[in-house]
Amino acid sequence: MDFRLRKENRIRRRKEIVFLLKKGKKLENENLKIVLKEREKFSRIGISVKKGVVNSVKRNRIRRLLKESFRRNREKFKSNFDLFIIVKKDISEKRYFEVEKDFLSILKKGNYLK
């Protein structure tokens, strides 16, 4: 299994994000909102952190933590998904394992993990 997070594992086009937001299943907790839709090939991720939440350094840290959570745990998914994560409030002070726990708890609640 390839553990890298390649360019093709990221959702990059605006029209793909808009389609996902319209047609995807929404799950959330107090920190994160995840919109996901099943797909055939491989899992992909997109992340949105509003500018009003925190400054750019903290926004990038949040993105890195969420990408790492996705990268390490994508083999636990029941099938392949497009995931779009919307960060609702500042989680930049949390440690990696806390962010990963939030991410996985949402997916477990929706019964998307093996």
Written description of the protein model:
- Helix 2 packs across helix 3.
- Strands 1-2-4-3 form a four-stranded mixed sheet, with helices on both faces.
- The protein has 114 residues and is of the alpha+beta class.
- The protein has helices at 14-23, 56-73, 96-109; strands at residues 25-28, 32-38, 44-49, 81-87.
- The protein has a single domain (7-109), classed as Ribosomal Protein S5, domain 2.
Quick structural overview:
The chain is an alpha+beta fold and 114 residues long.
What is the H-and-E element order? HEEEHEH
The CATH topology annotation reads as Ribosomal Protein S5, domain 2
**Strand line-up in the sheet with most strands:** 1-2-4-3
CATH class: Alpha Beta
What's the helix and strand layout?
Elements: H1 14-23, E1 25-28, E2 32-38, E3 44-49, H2 56-73, E4 81-87, H3 96-109
Parallel strand pairs: 3-4
Antiparallel strand pairs: 1-2, 2-4
Helix pairs in contact: 2-3
